[in-house]
Amino acid sequence: MNATTTTTTAPDLSAFWMPFTANRYFKRHPTLVAGAEGAYYRLPDGRRLFDCLSGLWCSPLGHGRPEIIEAVRRQIGELDFAPTFQVGHPKVFELAARVAQWAPAGLNRVFFSNSGSEAVDSALKIALAYHHARGEASRVRIIGRERAYHGVGIGGISAGGIGPNRRVFGALSAPFVDHLPHTYEPAQMRFSRGQPTWGAHLADTLERLVALHDASTIAAVIVEPMQGSTGVIVPPVGYLERLREICTRHGILLIFDEVITGFGRLGANFAAQRLGVTPDIITFAKAVTNGVIPLGGAIAHQSVYDALMRGPEQTIELFHGYTYSGHPVACAAGLATLEALEKGGLVERSAQLSTVLEEAVHSLRDEPHVIDIRNFGLAAAVELGARDGQPGARAREAFERGVQAGLLLRFSADILAVAPPFIATEEQIRDMVETLRGVLRRIA
Ligand code: PXG
Protein backbone atom coordinates (compact mmCIF):
# COMPACT_ATOMS: atom_id res chain seq x y z
CA MET A 1 0.00 0.00 0.00
CA ASN A 2 1.52 3.35 -0.91
CA ALA A 3 1.37 6.51 1.21
CA THR A 4 -1.49 8.00 -0.77
CA THR A 5 -3.84 5.08 -0.23
CA THR A 6 -2.95 4.98 3.46
CA THR A 7 -3.99 8.59 4.00
CA THR A 8 -7.19 8.35 2.00
CA THR A 9 -8.45 5.16 3.70
CA ALA A 10 -11.11 6.08 6.26
CA PRO A 11 -9.78 5.27 9.73
CA ASP A 12 -11.63 3.06 12.21
CA LEU A 13 -13.34 5.60 14.48
CA SER A 14 -14.24 3.28 17.34
CA ALA A 15 -11.24 3.46 19.71
CA PHE A 16 -10.94 7.22 20.16
CA TRP A 17 -13.22 8.41 22.97
CA MET A 18 -13.80 11.98 21.86
CA PRO A 19 -13.78 14.89 24.32
CA PHE A 20 -16.91 17.05 24.73
CA THR A 21 -18.48 15.26 21.76
CA ALA A 22 -21.59 13.19 21.14
CA ASN A 23 -19.47 10.15 20.30
CA ARG A 24 -22.20 7.91 18.89
CA TYR A 25 -23.63 10.67 16.71
CA PHE A 26 -20.21 11.77 15.49
CA LYS A 27 -19.18 8.26 14.56
CA ARG A 28 -22.27 7.92 12.39
CA HIS A 29 -21.83 11.45 10.91
CA PRO A 30 -18.10 12.15 11.10
CA THR A 31 -16.46 15.42 10.11
CA LEU A 32 -12.77 14.77 9.50
CA VAL A 33 -10.22 17.35 8.49
CA ALA A 34 -7.11 16.28 6.66
CA GLY A 35 -4.94 19.37 6.62
CA ALA A 36 -4.80 23.08 7.30
CA GLU A 37 -3.17 26.13 5.83
CA GLY A 38 -3.59 29.78 6.76
CA ALA A 39 -7.17 30.52 7.75
CA TYR A 40 -8.53 27.26 6.27
CA TYR A 41 -8.88 23.62 7.12
CA ARG A 42 -8.85 21.12 4.28
CA LEU A 43 -11.27 18.21 4.06
CA PRO A 44 -10.17 14.79 2.75
CA ASP A 45 -11.95 15.57 -0.55
CA GLY A 46 -9.89 18.75 -0.94
CA ARG A 47 -12.64 21.27 -0.09
CA ARG A 48 -11.63 24.12 2.24
CA LEU A 49 -13.38 25.24 5.43
CA PHE A 50 -12.81 28.71 6.85
CA ASP A 51 -11.48 28.34 10.40
CA CYS A 52 -14.12 30.48 12.13
CA LEU A 53 -12.84 29.86 15.69
CA SER A 54 -9.05 29.82 15.08
CA GLY A 55 -8.97 26.13 15.94
CA LEU A 56 -10.46 26.14 19.43
CA TRP A 57 -9.50 29.81 19.98
CA CYS A 58 -5.84 28.82 19.81
CA SER A 59 -4.47 29.57 16.33
CA PRO A 60 -4.53 33.35 15.73
CA LEU A 61 -1.66 33.11 13.23
CA GLY A 62 -3.47 30.57 11.10
CA HIS A 63 -2.08 27.15 10.23
CA GLY A 64 1.24 26.00 8.85
CA ARG A 65 3.32 29.03 9.90
CA PRO A 66 6.81 28.35 8.54
CA GLU A 67 8.62 30.12 11.41
CA ILE A 68 6.89 27.99 14.04
CA ILE A 69 7.46 24.80 12.08
CA GLU A 70 11.12 25.68 11.74
CA ALA A 71 11.52 26.61 15.43
CA VAL A 72 9.95 23.33 16.52
CA ARG A 73 12.03 21.30 14.10
CA ARG A 74 15.24 22.99 15.22
CA GLN A 75 14.40 22.57 18.91
CA ILE A 76 13.69 18.86 18.62
CA GLY A 77 17.10 18.40 17.01
CA GLU A 78 18.87 20.48 19.65
CA LEU A 79 17.15 19.57 22.92
CA ASP A 80 14.01 17.44 22.67
CA PHE A 81 13.32 17.24 26.38
CA ALA A 82 14.83 18.57 29.55
CA PRO A 83 13.39 18.54 33.04
CA THR A 84 12.63 21.84 34.71
CA PHE A 85 12.67 20.35 38.20
CA GLN A 86 16.05 21.45 39.56
CA VAL A 87 17.42 21.87 36.03
CA GLY A 88 16.84 24.61 33.48
CA HIS A 89 17.24 25.20 29.78
CA PRO A 90 17.54 28.59 28.08
CA LYS A 91 14.22 28.71 26.18
CA VAL A 92 12.04 28.31 29.25
CA PHE A 93 13.61 31.38 30.86
CA GLU A 94 13.42 33.31 27.59
CA LEU A 95 9.77 32.49 27.12
CA ALA A 96 8.90 33.39 30.73
CA ALA A 97 10.56 36.78 30.24
CA ARG A 98 8.73 37.28 26.94
CA VAL A 99 5.36 36.39 28.43
CA ALA A 100 6.05 38.80 31.31
CA GLN A 101 6.78 41.55 28.76
CA TRP A 102 3.34 40.98 27.27
CA ALA A 103 1.65 41.12 30.68
CA PRO A 104 0.67 44.23 32.64
CA ALA A 105 3.44 45.83 34.71
CA GLY A 106 4.11 43.93 37.92
CA LEU A 107 2.89 40.57 36.61
CA ASN A 108 6.29 39.10 35.93
CA ARG A 109 6.62 35.62 37.45
CA VAL A 110 5.51 32.85 35.11
CA PHE A 111 4.64 29.26 36.09
CA PHE A 112 4.24 26.89 33.14
CA SER A 113 1.68 24.15 32.61
CA ASN A 114 0.56 22.22 29.52
CA SER A 115 -3.04 23.33 29.20
CA GLY A 116 -5.56 25.89 30.33
CA SER A 117 -7.03 23.47 32.86
CA GLU A 118 -3.64 23.02 34.48
CA ALA A 119 -3.03 26.76 34.29
CA VAL A 120 -6.18 27.29 36.34
CA ASP A 121 -5.30 24.63 38.91
CA SER A 122 -1.84 26.19 39.18
CA ALA A 123 -3.26 29.67 39.73
CA LEU A 124 -5.67 28.45 42.41
CA LYS A 125 -2.89 26.59 44.22
CA ILE A 126 -0.63 29.65 44.03
CA ALA A 127 -3.44 31.71 45.58
CA LEU A 128 -3.85 29.29 48.49
CA ALA A 129 -0.09 29.01 48.99
CA TYR A 130 0.22 32.81 48.98
CA HIS A 131 -2.23 33.26 51.83
CA HIS A 132 -0.76 30.33 53.74
CA ALA A 133 2.71 31.83 53.48
CA ARG A 134 1.42 35.13 54.80
CA GLY A 135 -0.10 33.50 57.88
CA GLU A 136 -3.67 33.51 56.58
CA ALA A 137 -4.15 29.77 56.13
CA SER A 138 -7.90 30.15 56.70
CA ARG A 139 -8.22 31.71 53.24
CA VAL A 140 -9.12 28.61 51.26
CA ARG A 141 -12.37 29.55 49.56
CA ILE A 142 -12.50 30.21 45.82
CA ILE A 143 -15.20 32.38 44.28
CA GLY A 144 -16.04 31.56 40.67
CA ARG A 145 -18.97 32.63 38.55
CA GLU A 146 -22.04 31.08 36.99
CA ARG A 147 -21.51 29.93 33.40
CA ALA A 148 -17.73 30.14 33.82
CA TYR A 149 -15.43 27.71 32.05
CA HIS A 150 -12.08 27.17 33.71
CA GLY A 151 -11.24 23.84 32.13
CA VAL A 152 -11.83 20.38 33.48
CA GLY A 153 -9.41 19.87 36.36
CA ILE A 154 -10.93 19.53 39.80
CA GLY A 155 -10.07 23.16 40.57
CA GLY A 156 -11.50 24.34 37.28
CA ILE A 157 -14.80 22.48 37.56
CA SER A 158 -15.18 23.62 41.17
CA ALA A 159 -14.75 27.30 40.26
CA GLY A 160 -16.53 26.78 36.95
CA GLY A 161 -20.21 27.43 36.53
CA ILE A 162 -21.44 25.27 33.66
CA GLY A 163 -23.85 22.77 35.19
CA PRO A 164 -23.16 19.64 33.14
CA ASN A 165 -19.39 20.05 33.59
CA ARG A 166 -19.63 19.80 37.37
CA ARG A 167 -22.90 18.06 38.31
CA VAL A 168 -21.80 14.45 37.92
CA PHE A 169 -18.45 15.13 39.57
CA GLY A 170 -19.82 16.88 42.64
CA ALA A 171 -18.22 14.53 45.11
CA LEU A 172 -14.80 15.30 43.72
CA SER A 173 -15.13 19.05 43.45
CA ALA A 174 -13.61 21.34 46.03
CA PRO A 175 -16.05 22.06 48.88
CA PHE A 176 -14.93 25.61 49.56
CA VAL A 177 -16.34 27.43 46.57
CA ASP A 178 -19.11 29.87 45.87
CA HIS A 179 -20.21 31.62 42.71
CA LEU A 180 -21.00 35.12 41.55
CA PRO A 181 -23.98 35.52 39.24
CA HIS A 182 -23.14 35.64 35.54
CA THR A 183 -23.67 39.00 33.85
CA TYR A 184 -25.93 37.96 30.98
CA GLU A 185 -29.36 39.59 31.20
CA PRO A 186 -30.88 39.57 27.70
CA ALA A 187 -33.65 42.03 28.54
CA GLN A 188 -30.97 44.62 29.36
CA MET A 189 -28.31 43.91 26.77
CA ARG A 190 -29.61 41.96 23.79
CA PHE A 191 -27.75 42.98 20.58
CA SER A 192 -25.28 45.16 22.50
CA ARG A 193 -22.21 46.09 20.50
CA GLY A 194 -19.13 45.47 22.60
CA GLN A 195 -19.51 45.99 26.33
CA PRO A 196 -23.08 46.31 27.65
CA THR A 197 -23.66 49.44 29.67
CA TRP A 198 -25.92 47.65 32.16
CA GLY A 199 -24.66 45.30 34.85
CA ALA A 200 -21.70 46.81 36.77
CA HIS A 201 -23.73 46.47 39.97
CA LEU A 202 -23.67 42.66 39.64
CA ALA A 203 -20.12 42.82 41.00
CA ASP A 204 -21.56 43.95 44.32
CA THR A 205 -22.71 40.39 44.92
CA LEU A 206 -19.10 39.79 45.88
CA GLU A 207 -19.68 42.02 48.91
CA ARG A 208 -22.58 39.78 49.88
CA LEU A 209 -20.43 36.65 49.55
CA VAL A 210 -17.81 38.33 51.72
CA ALA A 211 -20.49 39.11 54.30
CA LEU A 212 -21.71 35.51 54.13
CA HIS A 213 -18.38 33.68 54.32
CA ASP A 214 -16.09 36.34 55.81
CA ALA A 215 -13.09 37.66 53.92
CA SER A 216 -10.80 35.64 56.18
CA THR A 217 -12.02 32.45 54.42
CA ILE A 218 -11.70 33.70 50.83
CA ALA A 219 -8.48 33.17 48.88
CA ALA A 220 -9.36 34.30 45.39
CA VAL A 221 -11.96 35.33 42.88
CA ILE A 222 -11.47 33.82 39.44
CA VAL A 223 -13.25 35.12 36.35
CA GLU A 224 -12.85 35.03 32.61
CA PRO A 225 -12.76 38.75 31.72
CA MET A 226 -14.93 37.79 28.75
CA GLN A 227 -16.72 34.48 29.19
CA GLY A 228 -15.77 32.60 26.04
CA SER A 229 -16.82 29.01 26.13
CA THR A 230 -20.35 29.63 27.36
CA GLY A 231 -20.98 31.84 24.34
CA VAL A 232 -19.15 35.18 24.46
CA ILE A 233 -20.63 36.97 27.45
CA VAL A 234 -19.08 40.41 27.49
CA PRO A 235 -18.27 42.18 30.78
CA PRO A 236 -20.54 45.16 31.47
CA VAL A 237 -18.81 48.54 31.57
CA GLY A 238 -17.38 49.05 35.07
CA TYR A 239 -18.04 45.49 36.29
CA LEU A 240 -14.47 44.17 36.44
CA GLU A 241 -13.25 47.48 37.88
CA ARG A 242 -15.67 46.98 40.74
CA LEU A 243 -14.63 43.37 41.31
CA ARG A 244 -11.03 44.59 41.47
CA GLU A 245 -11.87 47.22 44.01
CA ILE A 246 -13.78 44.82 46.28
CA CYS A 247 -11.02 42.18 46.10
CA THR A 248 -8.36 44.73 47.00
CA ARG A 249 -10.38 46.03 49.92
CA HIS A 250 -10.74 42.54 51.40
CA GLY A 251 -7.28 41.13 50.65
CA ILE A 252 -8.69 38.68 48.10
CA LEU A 253 -6.58 37.80 45.06
CA LEU A 254 -8.18 38.45 41.68
CA ILE A 255 -7.41 35.91 38.96
CA PHE A 256 -8.22 36.60 35.32
CA ASP A 257 -8.53 33.40 33.34
CA GLU A 258 -7.21 34.64 30.01
CA VAL A 259 -6.88 31.25 28.31
CA ILE A 260 -9.06 32.61 25.48
CA THR A 261 -8.53 36.37 25.82
CA GLY A 262 -4.74 36.28 26.19
CA PHE A 263 -2.33 37.25 23.39
CA GLY A 264 -4.42 39.64 21.40
CA ARG A 265 -7.94 38.25 21.06
CA LEU A 266 -9.46 41.45 22.46
CA GLY A 267 -7.17 43.78 20.54
CA ALA A 268 -4.69 44.26 23.40
CA ASN A 269 -2.08 41.89 24.79
CA PHE A 270 -4.43 40.68 27.50
CA ALA A 271 -7.97 41.62 28.50
CA ALA A 272 -6.35 43.21 31.55
CA GLN A 273 -4.79 45.89 29.36
CA ARG A 274 -7.81 46.22 27.11
CA LEU A 275 -10.01 46.90 30.13
CA GLY A 276 -7.48 48.72 32.30
CA VAL A 277 -8.00 46.31 35.20
CA THR A 278 -4.98 44.53 36.63
CA PRO A 279 -5.52 41.20 38.36
CA ASP A 280 -3.02 39.51 40.70
CA ILE A 281 -2.69 36.41 38.53
CA ILE A 282 -3.40 35.79 34.83
CA THR A 283 -3.81 32.31 33.39
CA PHE A 284 -3.02 31.65 29.74
CA ALA A 285 -2.69 28.78 27.23
CA LYS A 286 -3.91 28.26 23.65
CA ALA A 287 -2.61 31.19 21.53
CA VAL A 288 0.76 31.37 23.30
CA THR A 289 2.01 28.62 20.94
CA ASN A 290 -0.58 29.22 18.21
CA GLY A 291 -1.94 25.83 19.29
CA VAL A 292 0.96 24.01 17.69
CA ILE A 293 2.37 22.48 20.90
CA PRO A 294 0.37 22.43 24.14
CA LEU A 295 1.50 25.02 26.69
CA GLY A 296 -0.19 27.07 29.38
CA GLY A 297 0.67 28.86 32.56
CA ALA A 298 -0.04 31.36 35.29
CA ILE A 299 1.55 34.82 35.46
CA ALA A 300 1.74 36.06 39.04
CA HIS A 301 2.31 39.55 40.31
CA GLN A 302 5.77 39.81 41.75
CA SER A 303 4.31 40.45 45.22
CA VAL A 304 2.53 37.07 45.07
CA TYR A 305 5.78 35.34 44.14
CA ASP A 306 7.80 37.27 46.72
CA ALA A 307 5.42 36.27 49.50
CA LEU A 308 6.23 32.64 48.76
CA MET A 309 10.02 33.08 48.67
CA ARG A 310 10.52 32.42 52.37
CA GLY A 311 12.47 30.17 54.65
CA PRO A 312 15.91 28.73 54.06
CA GLU A 313 17.13 29.18 50.51
CA GLN A 314 17.17 25.43 49.89
CA THR A 315 13.45 25.09 50.62
CA ILE A 316 11.11 24.21 47.74
CA GLU A 317 8.71 27.15 47.90
CA LEU A 318 5.78 25.67 45.96
CA PHE A 319 5.00 21.96 45.90
CA HIS A 320 3.54 21.98 42.44
CA GLY A 321 4.67 21.33 38.86
CA TYR A 322 4.33 19.10 35.82
CA THR A 323 6.84 16.83 34.08
CA TYR A 324 6.33 19.01 31.02
CA SER A 325 6.28 22.45 32.71
CA GLY A 326 8.27 24.51 30.22
CA HIS A 327 8.85 21.71 27.72
CA PRO A 328 11.61 22.92 25.40
CA VAL A 329 9.69 22.21 22.20
CA ALA A 330 6.61 24.03 23.51
CA CYS A 331 8.80 26.95 24.58
CA ALA A 332 10.37 27.12 21.11
CA ALA A 333 6.88 27.20 19.59
CA GLY A 334 5.88 29.89 22.11
CA LEU A 335 8.87 32.12 21.33
CA ALA A 336 8.28 31.79 17.58
CA THR A 337 4.57 32.56 18.05
CA LEU A 338 5.07 35.67 20.17
CA GLU A 339 7.77 36.87 17.78
CA ALA A 340 5.41 36.45 14.83
CA LEU A 341 2.55 38.22 16.63
CA GLU A 342 4.87 41.11 17.50
CA LYS A 343 6.57 41.39 14.12
CA GLY A 344 3.32 41.23 12.24
CA GLY A 345 1.67 43.87 14.43
CA LEU A 346 -1.09 41.31 14.80
CA VAL A 347 -2.52 42.50 18.10
CA GLU A 348 -3.25 45.84 16.43
CA ARG A 349 -4.59 43.96 13.44
CA SER A 350 -6.90 41.98 15.72
CA ALA A 351 -8.19 45.33 17.02
CA GLN A 352 -8.77 46.62 13.47
CA LEU A 353 -10.52 43.46 12.37
CA SER A 354 -12.77 43.56 15.41
CA THR A 355 -14.62 46.57 14.00
CA VAL A 356 -15.13 44.70 10.71
CA LEU A 357 -16.45 41.67 12.59
CA GLU A 358 -18.75 43.84 14.71
CA GLU A 359 -20.29 45.54 11.67
CA ALA A 360 -20.67 42.31 9.77
CA VAL A 361 -22.01 40.08 12.51
CA HIS A 362 -24.63 42.56 13.73
CA SER A 363 -26.04 42.67 10.20
CA LEU A 364 -27.41 39.18 10.95
CA ARG A 365 -29.81 40.61 13.50
CA ASP A 366 -32.96 40.13 11.43
CA GLU A 367 -32.08 36.73 10.02
CA PRO A 368 -34.24 33.72 10.96
CA HIS A 369 -33.87 32.24 14.47
CA VAL A 370 -31.41 34.90 15.71
CA ILE A 371 -32.29 35.97 19.26
CA ASP A 372 -29.05 37.73 20.22
CA ILE A 373 -25.68 38.79 18.84
CA ARG A 374 -22.74 39.66 21.08
CA ASN A 375 -19.22 40.75 20.22
CA PHE A 376 -16.03 41.86 21.91
CA GLY A 377 -12.61 42.12 20.33
CA LEU A 378 -12.21 39.61 17.55
CA ALA A 379 -14.91 37.31 18.94
CA ALA A 380 -18.64 37.13 18.50
CA ALA A 381 -21.60 34.88 19.19
CA VAL A 382 -24.86 34.46 17.37
CA GLU A 383 -27.47 32.94 19.64
CA LEU A 384 -30.36 31.07 18.05
CA GLY A 385 -33.73 30.31 19.53
CA ALA A 386 -33.91 26.63 20.48
CA ARG A 387 -36.25 24.27 18.69
CA ASP A 388 -39.11 23.14 20.89
CA GLY A 389 -37.93 20.27 23.08
CA GLN A 390 -34.67 19.93 21.14
CA PRO A 391 -32.05 22.20 22.67
CA GLY A 392 -28.92 22.39 20.54
CA ALA A 393 -30.50 20.82 17.45
CA ARG A 394 -30.76 24.08 15.52
CA ALA A 395 -27.14 25.07 16.09
CA ARG A 396 -26.05 21.55 15.14
CA GLU A 397 -27.90 21.89 11.87
CA ALA A 398 -26.21 25.26 11.33
CA PHE A 399 -22.84 23.60 12.02
CA GLU A 400 -23.53 20.83 9.49
CA ARG A 401 -24.79 23.22 6.83
CA GLY A 402 -21.79 25.41 7.59
CA VAL A 403 -19.47 22.55 6.69
CA GLN A 404 -21.34 22.09 3.40
CA ALA A 405 -21.03 25.81 2.74
CA GLY A 406 -17.32 26.08 3.62
CA LEU A 407 -17.29 27.12 7.29
CA LEU A 408 -15.97 25.30 10.33
CA LEU A 409 -18.21 26.82 13.00
CA ARG A 410 -18.25 26.11 16.71
CA PHE A 411 -21.57 25.50 18.42
CA SER A 412 -22.48 24.91 22.00
CA ALA A 413 -26.12 24.63 23.00
CA ASP A 414 -27.79 26.95 20.44
CA ILE A 415 -24.96 29.45 20.32
CA LEU A 416 -22.60 29.79 17.36
CA ALA A 417 -19.26 31.34 18.27
CA VAL A 418 -16.74 32.86 15.88
CA ALA A 419 -13.23 34.16 16.58
CA PRO A 420 -11.31 34.21 13.30
CA PRO A 421 -7.53 34.18 12.99
CA PHE A 422 -5.78 37.56 13.17
CA ILE A 423 -4.28 36.87 9.74
CA ALA A 424 -7.73 36.73 8.14
CA THR A 425 -8.50 39.47 5.64
CA GLU A 426 -11.42 41.86 6.04
CA GLU A 427 -12.97 40.20 3.02
CA GLN A 428 -12.67 36.74 4.55
CA ILE A 429 -14.44 37.96 7.68
CA ARG A 430 -17.25 39.51 5.64
CA ASP A 431 -17.49 36.35 3.54
CA MET A 432 -17.69 34.23 6.68
CA VAL A 433 -20.65 36.27 7.88
CA GLU A 434 -22.36 36.22 4.46
CA THR A 435 -21.97 32.44 4.29
CA LEU A 436 -23.41 32.20 7.78
CA ARG A 437 -26.35 34.34 6.63
CA GLY A 438 -27.05 31.80 3.89
CA VAL A 439 -26.83 28.98 6.43
CA LEU A 440 -29.29 30.71 8.79
CA ARG A 441 -31.75 31.12 5.94
CA ARG A 442 -31.62 27.43 5.13
CA ILE A 443 -31.94 25.86 8.57
CA ALA A 444 -35.27 24.72 9.95
N1 PXG B 1 -10.00 28.45 30.89
C1 PXG B 1 -10.69 29.01 29.91
C2 PXG B 1 -11.18 30.41 30.05
C3 PXG B 1 -10.94 28.29 28.72
O1 PXG B 1 -11.65 28.86 27.74
C4 PXG B 1 -9.73 26.44 29.69
C5 PXG B 1 -9.51 27.20 30.81
C6 PXG B 1 -9.19 25.05 29.64
O2 PXG B 1 -8.15 24.94 28.74
P1 PXG B 1 -7.70 23.49 28.24
O3 PXG B 1 -6.42 23.79 27.53
O4 PXG B 1 -7.47 22.64 29.44
O5 PXG B 1 -8.78 22.97 27.35
C7 PXG B 1 -10.44 26.99 28.61
C8 PXG B 1 -10.68 26.15 27.39
C9 PXG B 1 -15.02 26.57 23.04
C10 PXG B 1 -13.89 25.90 23.76
O6 PXG B 1 -15.54 26.03 22.10
C11 PXG B 1 -13.24 26.57 24.76
C12 PXG B 1 -12.21 25.95 25.46
C13 PXG B 1 -11.81 24.67 25.12
C14 PXG B 1 -12.46 24.00 24.10
C15 PXG B 1 -13.52 24.61 23.39
O7 PXG B 1 -15.38 27.71 23.40
N2 PXG B 1 -11.62 26.67 26.48
Describe this structure in words.
The chain has 17 helices and 15 strands. It has 444 residues and is of the alpha/beta class. The strands form three sheets. The protein has a seven-stranded mixed β-sheet with strand order 4-10-9-8-7-5-6, sandwiched between helices. The longest helix is centred in the first third of the chain and has 18 residues. The chain binds 3-[O-phosphonopyridoxyl]--amino-benzoic acid. 3-[O-phosphonopyridoxyl]--amino-benzoic acid (PXG) binds next to helix 3, helix 6 and strand 14.
Quick summary:
With 444 residues, the chain is α/β, with parallel strands linked by helices. The chain has 17 helices and 15 strands.
- Helix tally equals 17
- How does CATH name the architecture of the largest domain? 3-Layer(aba) Sandwich
Count the domains.
2
Distance between the termini: 44 Å
Largest sheet: 7 strands, mixed
Class inferred from helices and paired strands: alpha/beta
Features:
disordered N terminus, 444 residues, 2 domains, 4-stranded mixed beta sheet, Aspartate Aminotransferase, domain 2, binds 3-[O-phosphonopyridoxyl]--amino-benzoic acid, 38% helix
Chain-wise SSE layout:
Blueprint: H1 3-8, H2 23-28, E1 35-37, E2 40-42, E3 48-51, H3 54-57, H4 66-78, H5 90-102, E4 107-113, H6 116-133, E5 141-145, H7 154-159, H8 163-166, E6 177-180, H9 186-189, H10 205-213, E7 218-223, H11 239-249, E8 253-257, H12 271-275, E9 281-284, E10 296-301, H13 302-308, H14 328-343, H15 346-362, E11 370-375, E12 380-384, H16 393-405, E13 407-408, E14 410-412, E15 415-418, H17 426-442
Parallel strand pairs: 3-13, 5-6, 5-7, 7-8, 8-9
Antiparallel strand pairs: 1-2, 2-3, 4-10, 9-10, 11-12, 12-15, 14-15
The chain binds 3-[O-phosphonopyridoxyl]--amino-benzoic acid.
